[in-house]
């Protein structure tokens, strides 16, 4: 008999309102540790808002979110890695220079960690070209490295495969699987669910600000 | 509100008319400036009212930063808007007074200049509120309001020292004031306060209703079930 | 990570970025030069008068040049939403703010250092009072503009018409500081009155608003 899944994230009837627009309409969700969740749904369904609330970038209008046992997300912000379509990198710096700076934000000054992380995501640490000249695939890989720099327990990825070439996308997907296997919890928003078909443990479907079960979707 | 408002409006109108009568006909004529001086009874109460409203804005902004209560933000925006109105009156009546008396349209008198700077700061505050995108408007407006309030004593001291180096005619005059004039002044001030209170109430209600409308729209769509 | 180390790291990063692109510095220097030249055509006094108005002219020139610099303070952070990454990290936001203020200060000070000789030449300026006092006045005045400017630049990020919002907010609030820096400069140049009170006022202004900025920056950064 399998051990009961350990809940690491809980949304409790979360509502998020931006002026007149309601992005999240009472989301209740339990997510278990060590799993890779594919977050799916149409544009405007509230997927990005869901992740941003979890990252602490948006405050719920109503309801609570708890993560790693606490509802004050600022205390556990160190355990989150966040990646979205904007790269959150400096276009004029090289890969190493970028990672070096973001490592400093977390108090990490180990040079070798940056280099090895760049290699892990499939890039060349010796490359001195500014990131602004990278292809989208390379930029997303580096953004992933940035999200991983502090070895967070939870990874939030908002459309990591968009505008990325097929080969890079497959490599990133397999890398995400490896991260999950090493014990991390991953939430991945994507429109390309087939890319995650082999690695995802579970799917979360959203529609108009709500979580919908597979039956409701039919 | 609907029933009591017109009554209060009429009462305020009556009070203002009475105060105007006092200012134009009852108050004694000033010995050096003549009848032009009577604009003093509009100029000074407007200034006091504006300062009071800006003080309310400061307190509301600080309270909002601590408590994030939307009603408090409504107080902040209302007091700023009504305050700017009265501040504008001060800036218009000042030159209107200065021109016939001293032959100049503007003077770097400490009160008039301070009022100008105050007006500039709060107009910038209102423009910020108008241009700000998203739900963060109350927060960033509140921080700017705190900055504006912190600036007030610095404005006063800098202009005061500036003025002693470039002496200018002083609008409003220093020194003592005839008790009959003081009475008229205070009556006008109370009338202005009533007008300000009325404007405040009306604008505040508008803001609260807007907030409630936004929230109601939200609640309504929450209750909507997706068609299945 | 301590605030000091993080401020230094951010400053170093910004220096590297500026050095790579260099176009911001060059265009700003040229803008400051243009302002000085245009002022020289517009106000052409004799030596006696020039001492009295030079203080005002030079600080207005610096004010407009610094707005150009301040407007791009957060441009790179906004472009790729780097601020989101900063907000999620445990890094203290004051370190980021301080680094940006110091960076802007050095930037504007450099522009001032390079354009002042031009002013002196065009207006045949000679200080009657102790000229060395102009340095602390310039430092305090520049800090006054730059500390509030960096803060309002962050506020402007969240508005439409960002470039115009910054001066709209900065100019009124800077009026006491501008009066002080112009009066202090004129006092030193003409030796007609003492600069002491103005320097004290400027120092007070700097302290009050530096504290206010440090206390409120996190609020502005996290406002959503």
Overall 3D form of chain B? flat
Measured between the Cα atoms of the first and last residue of chain B, the distance is 43 Å
- The residue ranges of chain C in which pLDDT falls below 50 over 5 or more consecutive positions are none
**Secondary-structure element sequence of chain B?**
HHHHHH
- Count of distinct structural domains of chain B: 1
**Percentage of residues in DSSP E strands of chain B:** under 5%
Give the overall pLDDT of chain C as a whole number.
Answer: 91
Describe the structure.
- The complex is a heterotrimer of chains A (218), B (228) and C (224).
- Chain A is built from 7 helices and 9 strands.
- With 218 residues, chain A is an alpha/beta fold.
- In chain A, a hairpin with a 2-residue loop joins β8 (202-207) and β9.
- Chain A is globular.
- Chain B is mainly α.
- Chain B is built from 6 helices and no strands.
- Chain B has helices at 4-26, 40-67, 70-102, 110-131, 137-165, 179-223.
- Chain C is mostly helical.
- Chain C is 83% helix and 0% strand.
- In chain C, α3 (47-71) runs antiparallel to α8.
- Chain C starts with a helix and ends with a helix.
């Amino acid at each position: 008999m399998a051990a009961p899944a350990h809940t690491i994230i809980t949304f409790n009837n979360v509502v998020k309102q931006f002026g007149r627009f309601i992005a999240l309409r009472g989301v209740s969700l339990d997510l278990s540790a060590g799993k890779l969740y594919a977050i799916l749904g149409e544009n405007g369904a509230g997927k990005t808002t869901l992740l941003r609330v979890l990252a602490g970038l948006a405050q719920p209008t109503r309801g609570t979110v708890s993560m790693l046992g606490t509802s004050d997300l600022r205390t556990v912000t160190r355990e989150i890695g966040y990646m979205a379509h904007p790269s959150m990198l400096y276009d004029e710096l090289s890969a190493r220079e970028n990672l070096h700076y973001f490592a400093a934000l977390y108090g990490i000054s180990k040079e070798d960690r940056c280099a090895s992380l760049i290699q892990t995501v499939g890039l060349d640490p010796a490359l001195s070209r500014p990131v602004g000249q990278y292809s989208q695939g390379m930029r997303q890989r580096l953004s992933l490295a940035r999200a991983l720099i502090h070895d967070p327990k939870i990874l939030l990825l908002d459309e990591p495969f968009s505008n990325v070439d097929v080969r890079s996308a497959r490599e990133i997907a397999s890398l995400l699987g490896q991260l999950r296997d090493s014990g991390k919890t991953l939430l991945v928003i994507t429109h390309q669910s087939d890319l995650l078909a082999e690695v995802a443990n579970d799917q979360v479907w959203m529609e108009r600000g709500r979580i919908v079960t597979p039956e409701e979707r039919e | 509100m609907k029933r009591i408002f017109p009554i209060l409006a009429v009462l305020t109108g009556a009070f203002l008319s009475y105060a105007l009568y006092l200012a134009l006909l009852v108050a004694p004529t000033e010995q050096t400036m003549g009848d032009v001086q009577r604009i003093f009874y509009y100029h000074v109460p407007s200034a006091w009212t504006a300062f009071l409203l800006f003080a309310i804005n400061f307190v509301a902004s600080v309270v909002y930063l601590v408590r994030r209560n939307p009603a408090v933000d409504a107080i902040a925006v209302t007091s700023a808007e009504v305050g700017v109105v009265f501040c504008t009156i001060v800036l218009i009546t000042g030159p209107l007074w200065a021109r016939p008396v001293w032959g100049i349209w503007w003077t770097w008198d400490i009160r008039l200049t301070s009022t100008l700077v105050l007006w500039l700061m709060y107009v910038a505050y209102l423009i910020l509120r108008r241009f700000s995108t998203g739900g963060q408007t109350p927060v960033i407006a509140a921080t700017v309001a705190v900055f504006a309030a912190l600036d007030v004593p610095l404005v006063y001291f800098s202009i005061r020292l500036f003025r002693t180096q470039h002496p200018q005619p002083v609008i409003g005059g220093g020194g003592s004031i005839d008790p009959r004039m003081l009475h008229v002044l205070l009556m006008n001030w109370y009338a202005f306060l009533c007008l300000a209170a009325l404007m405040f109430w009306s604008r505040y209600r508008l803001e609260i209703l807007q907030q409630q409308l936004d929230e109601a729209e939200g609640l309504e769509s929450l209750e909507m079930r997706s068609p299945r | 990570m301590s605030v000091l180390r993080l401020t230094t790291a951010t400053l170093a990063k910004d220096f590297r970025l500026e050095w790579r692109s260099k176009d911001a510095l060059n265009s700003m220097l040229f803008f400051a030069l243009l302002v000085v030249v245009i002022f020289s055509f517009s106000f052409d006094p004799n030596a006696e008068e020039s001492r009295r108005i030079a203080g005002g002219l030079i600080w207005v020139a610096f004010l407009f040049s610094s707005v150009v610099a301040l407007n791009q303070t957060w441009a790179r952070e906004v472009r790729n939403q780097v601020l989101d990454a900063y907000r999620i990290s445990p890094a203290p936001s004051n370190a980021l703010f301080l680094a940006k203020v110091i960076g802007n200060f050095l930037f504007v000070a450099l522009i001032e250092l390079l354009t002042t000789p031009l002013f002196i030449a065009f207006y045949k300026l000679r200080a009657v009072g102790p000229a060395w006092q102009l340095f602390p006045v310039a430092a305090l005045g520049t800090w006054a503009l730059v500390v509030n400017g960096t803060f309002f630049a962050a506020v402007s990020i969240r508005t439409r018409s960002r470039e115009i919002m910054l001066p709209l907010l900065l100019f009124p609030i800077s009026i006491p500081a501008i009066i002080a820096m112009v009066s202090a400069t004129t006092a030193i140049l003409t030796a007609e009155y003492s600069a002491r009170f103005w320097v004290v006022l400027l120092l007070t202004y700097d302290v009050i608003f530096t504290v206010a900025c440090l206390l409120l920056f996190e609020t502005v950064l996290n406002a959503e």
